[in-house]
Amino acid sequence: MYSLFKLVVRLALILLVVYIAVKPYNWFCKLSSKCSPLHLEALFQKKEVGAPFDVAFEVKNLNESISFEADAPMMQTVFNRKSSMAFYIKNISARQVTFRPQLVIEPVNTKQYVEVYDCLCSQEYTLKAGESIKTSMEFMVDSDMMNASDLSSTTQTYYNNSYYANAANSKPQPKVTIRYEIKPR
Q1: Nearest Cα to Cα of residue 102 among 25, 178, 175
Q2: CA 173 → CA 7, 30, 146, distances in Å?
Q3: Where in the chain are the domains?
Q4: How high is the mean pLDDT in each 10-residue block of the chain (185 residues)?
Q5: Model pTM greater than 0.85?
Q6: Using omega within 30 degrees of 0 as the cis cutoff, is the peptide bond preceding 37 cis?
Q7: The domain defined by 41-182 carries CATH number 3.40.50.300
Q8: How far apart are CA 184 and CA 22, in angstroms?
């Protein structure tokens, strides 16, 4: 019985070390774009709750060399559901193009409730002239957002170092906007 206890303790310690090591690994992946982050919480997903709500998808493409669009401008999901959206990217120029989409989640204070598992922003893309790809992102909106008191209907956009804000005092419907921005190099 004592050896079984030692085995359980050792396995628990191994799992703890792996869990602690994931954070620095994910930071490395985000900074280097050489790997995909690990999301252990995806293994232990919460129960889907709440009424369906809309998640909007926008693309702010300032690079005239590519065509970049979401499969649909909006989709419905519920809290704690892992959802996916496809994106189509095509090089419409006569030369090779390299770019990295930047992820923006609005309203800004909802970002903490959106877990992005597979982000287009995690890598740099290089497309040859006329080449096109289909890629996707996976995300989940956490149910903690239902009880959040810090939500407002403020929309914030950062563009070329300018800041614009539009605020209203009404309590918002649970809606999230996920936008990818591509700027020319």
Answers
A1: 178
A2: 50, 31, 10
A3: 1-38, 41-182
A4: 83 81 74 68 74 86 89 89 92 92 85 84 88 91 79 36 32 62 73
A5: no
A6: no
A7: no
A8: 33
